[in-house]
Amino acid sequence: MRWDAQALRPRLGEQPGEQGSNSTGTAAPAAEPLLPLAGLVRSVSTPEFAGVTFHEVTAKSVLNKVAAGSRMPFEWTVNPYRGCSHACVYCFARKSHTYLDFDAGLDFDSHVVVKINAAEVLRKELAKPSWGRQHVALGTNTDPYQRAEGRYSLMPGIIGALADSGTPLSILTKGTLLARDIPLLKHAAAQVPVGIGISLAMTDERLSEAVEPGTPGPRARLKLVSRLRDAGLPCGVMAMPILPWLSDSDEALDSLFGALASAGATGVTAGALYLKPGTREWFMQWIAARHPELAGRYRRLYGTGSYASKEYREWLAGRIRYFKARHGFSGSHGFSHRDVDDPRGEEAQYPAGSIPLDGAGRAAQAGAAPAASQPTLF
User: Fold this and answer.
1) Which domain holds residue 148?
2) Alpha helices in the chain (DSSP H)
């Protein structure tokens, strides 16, 4: 979504470039966009979201086709936001921000593009006679329940549009704001297959605060898993990335899989840190600053590529299998290309147990019963 592809308009009663009001009712300070974004609705910075600038745009389309040949169980995605205030130092999507002429570092964390008309555009796209009601995945690039969702509330309209059109859906998130939409998701699940995935790769609160500083902590996400299961919704967990020498000890893995089992997760997919260009530079800078004793070990482990050595991946895969079995999870490793001998397309991932499947192992379509082999706990 390039800036020059947008048709932009001001909000009702506002002039182009006009700023919103802060919590005291006074004018919020104007945010200076990094680029001359012609026709931009507005770029907003408010005290409630200190350090984050929201760039509001209107999109012409929000349905994205998954690349041909993908091994993912779905063909379509929707991402209402670009950039992510979760600020995870390991996020694979960082380089995508450079396509908008932002950088993959602080800009990714602090300049969030908001497709303010996402729900309306989606309804129009889903109403087309050509739409086949294929499964749509949310949260495959940036988190749909990041802090921006608390301001813009785009997800209820998106979920409603998908369910009303008979389109199955799934969501992957770290955001506990999803709890707000549990009643809506239960209603949608009565109409179409609905799957939920929570991203949680560590139980160490201090480590989580260091590497994913804008996210709810592990305890809060575990509570969300339990709430989703209590509501009768499937909830798989994406336990990625496991960080070498930081979260890959037996103690850390035992704690993680034990906590996920106790929370009732319906499946879990786990794998090693992946450092694609854009992410690698940012993460290595963080390691050098926060854990200088590990900087050389990481350089040797990853060499000049994006993947940890095959020996490390084999070792970690064995530990993951052991602790999954120890805590009652099935052997399924979900929908990820993080296989030991085929570590391609790391962004193509979705956790086991999160998506209702048909008998062919694809995402269940409207009116189709999930396969009996859907990964479950115990």
Assistant:
1) 59-95+114-350
2) 106-110, 118-126, 147-152, 155-164, 182-189, 205-211, 218-230, 250-263, 279-290, 292-302, 310-326
Q: How many domains, the chain?
A: 1
Q: Read off the pTM.
A: 0.82
Residue 53's beta-bridge partner residues?
A: 111
- For the cut 80, the answer to whether the pLDDT of residue 79 exceeds it is yes
Nearest Cα neighbor of 56 from 48, 65, 44 is 44
Q: Considering only CA atoms, which of 106, 90, 110 is closest in space to residue 43?
A: 110
Span 167-183, pLDDT tens digits:
999 999 999 999 999 99
In a domain, 296, yes or no: yes
Token reading at 91? 């996020």
Strand partners, 26: none
Q: How far is CA 247 from the centre of its chain?
A: 20
Q: pLDDT band at residue 339, thresholds of 50, 70 and 90? A: very low
Check which CATH number belongs to the domain holding 344 and give it. Answer: 3.20.20.70
Residue 363 domain-assigned (yes or no)? no
pLDDT tens, residue by residue, 305-326: 999 999 999 999 999 999 999 9
pLDDT at position 214 over 70: yes
The secondary element (H helix, E strand) that includes residue 169 is strand 169-173
* Single-letter code of the amino acid located at 131: W
2: exposed, middle or buried (Cβ count in 10 Å: 0-12, 13-18, 19+): exposed
3-state secondary structure 236-258: EEEEEEECCCCCCCHHHHHHHHH
Q: Tell me, yes or no, whether 191 lies in a domain.
A: yes
Task: State how far the Cα of 103 lies from the Cα of 112, in Å rounded to an integer.
Answer: 12
